C-alpha cells in the first residue's frame, strides 16, 4: 500500500516514522538514486586523480590545476600546492603527482609553517616532502604498474617543489634530486 508512493523522479518517498515505545521501527528499503559519476573538471589526469582518491580515501573533485602559471616563481619553485589549487610553471607537469600529495596533506590538516619565502608561510619539512613524492608515485602506480619509478629513475636534475597556502596557512619547499627519490621508491 505505501510502497506505491513515489516522488516526481520515480523514487520512493521516505516514510514518516514515529516511535511510541510500543510499536516497532520498520526497516528502510527505499530505492536509492543511482550514483552519478561526476566529470573530471580538475585539470588532473583521470588516472592520477582516481589513484590518489583511492590511496587517500578523499574526494579530489574540488582540486584545480593551473598549468603554465607564473606564481611558482614567487616562491622560487617549479610548482606548488596552495589549498586545493596546484600551480605548475610552464613545462613542469612532472611535479603534478607530488603536488597532489601536498594537497592531500593539507586536507588532512598536517601542514604547519616552518619558515617563510617572500613573506609567505612555508613548510620545508623533509618528511612531508618525501611523503608527497611517495604518495604521488603510488597514486600513479595504482594504474600504471611502476612506470613512474622508471621515468623518475631516468631524471637526474635537481628540482624545487613547494606547498603553499596563504592566509595563515603553509607553503612547503625543498630541493631534492629526483634520482634519489626514485631510488627510495624502488
From TrEMBL:
Stretches for region Disordered: 1-47, 163-186
Family annotation (Pfam families): eCIS_core (PF13699)
Superkingdom, taxonomy of origin: Bacteria
Comp. bias (Basic and acidic residues): 1-10, 173-186
Transmembrane segments: none
InterPro entries in the record: eCIS_core_dom (IPR025295)
The name this protein goes by in its record: eCIS core domain-containing protein
Organism annotation: Vibrio quintilis
Upper classification of the organism: Bacteria, Pseudomonadati, Pseudomonadota, Gammaproteobacteria, Vibrionales
